[in-house]
Description:
With 109 residues, the chain is α+β, with helices and mostly antiparallel strands. The protein has a domain at 31-102. The chain contains two helices and six strands; from the N terminus they run αββββββα. A hairpin with a 2-residue loop joins strand 1 and strand 2 (47-52). It is elongated, with a radius of gyration of 19 Å.
Amino acid sequence: MSRVLKLTAFLLILLTICSAGAVWSYTQPPPPMPPGVSPHWTPAPGNPRVAFAPNLPSDIFWYGNHYFYYYGGYWYRGNSLYGPWKLVRHLPRGIYRLHRAAFKQPRPW
Length: 109
């Protein structure tokens, strides 16, 4: 019985370590803007209440007093263009209404 408990404890510790590393990598996206470039905010196709910056190389949107940044298959939200960025699990409906022309990468849905 003690071997089973030791093995279970080892697997739980290993799972905790692996999942902590995965969360860390998902919560640290690169900056969305190159240095010295200012965004030119424009109403986004599909929802004029959302603004996007077609002059930036990243998929970044302004909606409801927050910035939303799509990078590496994940969505992030921040209060500033410079972060800090937090992983978003549920997007506002306004973002889902965007037309594919608002995205530089393939639209994620």
